[in-house]
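User: Predict the full complex structure for these chains.
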Amino acid sequence: MIFVTIGAQMPFDRLLRTVDAWAGSQQRHEVFAQIGDTRWRPRHMKWATFLDPIDYRERLFETDLIVAHAGMGTILSAFEFATPILVLPRRYDLRETRNDHQFDTARAFARTGQIAVALNEDDLAERLNDLTTIPVPERAPSHASFRLLSTLRQFIQEEGKQPIAKTEATVAGAQLPHHYAPSESQSGARKAA
Amino acid sequence: MPMDAASLNSPSGQGPRTKRILAVASGGGHWVQLLRLRAAFTGAHVAFVTVKSAYRADVETAPFYAVNDATRWNKFGMPLLAMRILIIIMRERPDVVITTGAAPGYFAVVFGRLLGARTVWIDSMANVSRLSLSGQKVDRWADLLLTQWSALARPGGPRYEGAVL
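Assistant: Here is the predicted structure of the two-chain assembly.
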């Protein structure tokens, strides 16, 4: 099955219309789309506005290919399920998102060979016609990196009255209210190192 | 700090007690990234705040609050969101506020810090080439500001300590 998702928030007609037209012309009947706030309704795909977390995961279990916006949540889901993903980044100039960060995200993950990126609608239709070129990402665990987890765990366990000191402790030229000597907390020591 | 939420609910002179965490994220990728941090919360009391009530299914029986979302394009929701977050923080009295953004996390860090919690902002992994606007704004309120891309780390600014992936 092909699962099309544009996240659960802003509309993304450009992606949905392109995949819908492709599904129609290729007689693909096993395409399902989560269309969020998009007002336009697909003609050749089954669709829902929003899938709750359980339905979403169930859907992903049955999915052979994800076609999506370059949203971080969708990309992480693809990695967790080791499902090939083809993304079309949202464009700020078309008011599809609040800035062009999806191009950066897409580029960063395409560089590692884990995702396929279409830059425009024609490109997207072309990629859909040759699905063999879309890479299968390496399966990722469902948790953050151990380094991040242990940093957070340490932060959580520290005592309340010793906020972690910021290195330099300046933000936009302003001095922070508290600055603790590195020896007062482990993380302070780590920072100073 | 005069209003230290941690000391208010801790019998003085006793050993370490269960930490109270408020974990906050708006929808989509922000929420997915927050869920990937849960292994760091083991042993703590965690309450979740997000923007879709359907996400409750992700966190089983943990205390859960759904608030309205607000964005740069929809500023009318901001005062309401701020008020809701403030009420949640007064009720939950967290020792630690952890957020992956965006607007609900911003208010949680600001109010959390003002009410004596220690605060962490983890900028979304989607922000590859620059920190999010809210991440930049929240800098002075966050005890720990993390980017998930090492190229964005700098002295006195966001640190890199790994990513949600």
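The mean pLDDT of chain B is 91.
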